[in-house]
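hey so i finaly got around to running the thing on Protein translocase subunit SecE from Paracoccus cavernae. pasting the sequence first so u can double check i didnt mess up the copy paste, my clipboard has been acting weird all day
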Amino acid sequence: MHDDPVQFIGQVRAEISKITWPTRREVVTTTIMVLIMATICSLFFFMVDFGIRTGLGAILGAVGS
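ok and heres what it spat out for the 3d tokens, dont ask me to read them lol
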């Protein structure tokens, strides 16, 4: 039927002991990689947005004149 709370806590501890925690160096490395990729993506989308905005402004300016 239902496991008792003591057995459940024992199973939780057994599962937690299987976890492989990253080293400090791995955490720092992946954090830096994420920040670099976020910066690259933000620059890319800024340039795409700027290009679309400039292109549409030129098209609408030419049509509106």
